[in-house]
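queue> holo job accepted (pyridoxal-5'-phosphate)
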Amino acid sequence: MGTRLREITKDQPKGMLVIDEKPIIEQSICKLIEMGIDRIVIGTGYLAEAYERLALQYPQIKCIRNDEYEKTGSMYTLYNLKDHISGDILLLECDLIYEKKPLELLIKHKERDVILASELTGSKDEVFIETDEFHLLVNMSKNRNKLSNIYAELVGITKISYNTFQAMCHYATSTQYDSSKLNYEDALVGISKNIKIYVQKLRNFAWCEIDDKHHLYRAKHYIYPIIKAKEKTYPPVKRNILLNPGPATTTDTVKYAQVVPDICPREGEFGDIMQFISTELTRFVADPEEYTAILFGGSGTAVVESILSSVIGEDTVLIINNGVYGRRMCQMAEVYGLKYIEYRSAPDEALDLASLEAVIQNSTAKISHLAVVHNETTTGLLNDIGSIGQLCKKYHVYMIVDAVSSYGAIPIDMNVMNISYLAASSNKNIQGMAGVGFVIANKAQLETTGCLKPRNFYLHLYEQYKYFLATKQMRFTPPVQTLYALKQAIIETRLESIKERYSRYSEAWEVLIDGITQLGLTHLVKKENHSRIITAIIEPNTPSYDFEEMHDYFSRCGYTIYPGKLDAKNTFRVANIGDITHKDMELFVSLLKQYLISISYYNSRRENNGNSKT
Ligand SMILES: *Cc1c(COP(=O)(O)O)cnc(C)c1O
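queue> job finished
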């Protein structure tokens, strides 16, 4: 009945909701037919005629009405279909959009009864699933407190063998509760004591149930575009594994998102896309009501420069320099003639916050801003911006964070961390194409910069902000296709979630660290201070080693590694960002081993000596 979507469902049932030209149930039916399913029974109720009209177009469909739909649960509807079911079935809810992949998985699954499940979506209407250690169904509920563990979330696509279907019908007629109110989930739980029902959890697949207007927004803007992109068939692009710190390896769906009809970026349609991008980039780290993302055509450096040259007045900025990117901010301050204090710290050790505080306290000049790099890409040193933010709060200093190499992977909360301005770009952890830089700013603070005397033109943050607010356009030609790719990359990031992305990255990083350690190599920054995103590895100390040679060797295998950037120590760098997994890193480690053997740095004898078990 879709009572929570009254606007849309007052004259049509929920399954007839149209997303991108076709009703969602019709999209589902087309997928089933493509999978070779040729008998489809729809249990109808509310405004059943709509489904009956659909059945006229598809000879595969038969509709069976449940006239008691207002008073009964979904099991009652299913029970009514029993005379039309004579074998194994796939049971689908009508209000789902989903990608086709899991249908095939269920049909081919070796278990006969399989509930399709996903990671928790946090959609607020989830049915949680409890399983035993073999992932067999124990219980399901919308109330998480009723379960003793939560393994996954119910999707609403279930493979049910004929025997099991009969058992469900039997359960429905024999339960002591009012059986007409039973939902099919209750029947599955009811019989699960006697029949093994396997719960198949799938990661990273796009689906969405639509019950209310938040779900509908999510379906239209985040999930449907993913499904559409994944189900388009394009030839795969040769996959290179970029282990340089950005641009990172991207998905084919992001690459192909750039192939769009030519469009003038001054058109309203393109403005809407940029508005979506700006809002969603903000939402990853802050509330879009209070913060905003200002987009520029340019790389990460452009937006760091935009902040430094746009928001600081006649007072002093304290710049933390513990690597190349910190030093770069000092160079910018120099070029723009800012008053600045350089706070130097070792590139491989945690900052000494007490000494930093002493600098703020003892400064004779008024420090209005502090600038720091979150993940120092030179070494992978992670600066503790949470604590620095508290220091800034205490001394009424605005904090500027270069988060170019952390945004999109390491969870950030600008409000909690007290960050006023944050810089990031399209081609690192957000996994888009190079060409868009963006500043996420606290609106109230940004507003106060309008009266400062300008030091720049193209990069003027306040002008770019005001212009976008008024027109939904950038002041100058935007990188149009890069923005289409960024939109797709944002949607894919949301689907995975930043938390999950970081654990995927971390998993690859653990493989890297274990691998190089076994090969007798060491890395610069201690684990507890490490960003787990990029690692500076000390070069093998042997004359036969040559970075260029090693680089070319990896290139031939489809891997790109990166030189070091420290004056004092000889390092090379390996990043573990982008569309890669721990498996890619396992292959990298074994290739590295081959290389180290080829230069006689490493041999299997050494491997045996190093292994305490032998
Ligand atoms: C990559 C990066 C930048 C920007 O570099 P571009 O070459 O301009 O994209 C800035 N800061 C940090 C910490 C980075 O890792």
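queue> Residues 245-246, 299-301, 304, 325, 373, 377, 402, 404-405, 425 surround pyridoxal-5'-phosphate (CB under 6 Å).
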